[in-house]
Input
Amino acid sequence: MRIVLLGAPGSGKGTQAQRLMSDYGIPQISTGDLLRQAVAEGSDLGMRAKRFMDKGELVADEVVIGMIRERIARPDAEPGFIFDGFPRTLVQAEALDELLQELDKPLQLAVLMDLDSSILLKRLSGRRTCRNCDKVANVHHPAFDATEHCPETGAAHDYFQRSDDNEDTIAKRLDIYAAQTEPLVACYRGQGKLVSVDAQGSIEEVYDRLVSALETLEREGVGDAVQVEVEEPDKA
Ligand code: AMP
Output
């Protein structure tokens, strides 16, 4: 399965991609995670990227495309991949198409995680990540439990807030999404590869909708037939 998860920051791409990865046995490839890893390692690329990431701006297309080229050449990506946060510009989408054509493994589906911007803001400002196990939680969620134990340490999760999840940077990231990434929706719709999934609701509800969309892909293959709207009839 070769898919792209499209959607604004905070639409739940990372969370859903991680679940798909464990259920379908294919890697989640997140350019945000790859860049944060480069920053943590203190590499030249990481240091250059950090300046843009901290301001909520996009890192240069060539840098991100180079990272993806290397990442999909690894053996674990042989059976497929879930792109999360990539492509984010039309240039990246074109480069991805070319790259996958060279490998004779065209993209099968682009799933748009569709969510209202007021919910995006709340999700991003409350988002926390555990330093030890990478669990992502939200302090605004009624089920948030600060005392829950981390499976890595056995002690309470050591949550931190991403440096780009502050209010000013969030607003900038949402603007950049609207200007640079949203045009990809029309682009993938034009290719007959777009599925829109209502991303409102619990992680389980959204995951169920996502899996229905992917089952359509498995049944009907690539092409116009996968251009379906997967939405609950009575959403909360
Ligand atoms: P994310 O974790 O996907 O929200 O990405 C965090 C930050 O990493 C973004 O705000 C960008 O600065 C950078 N980034 C991640 N993916 C890309 C991409 N495909 N193109 C350019 N910059 C990216």
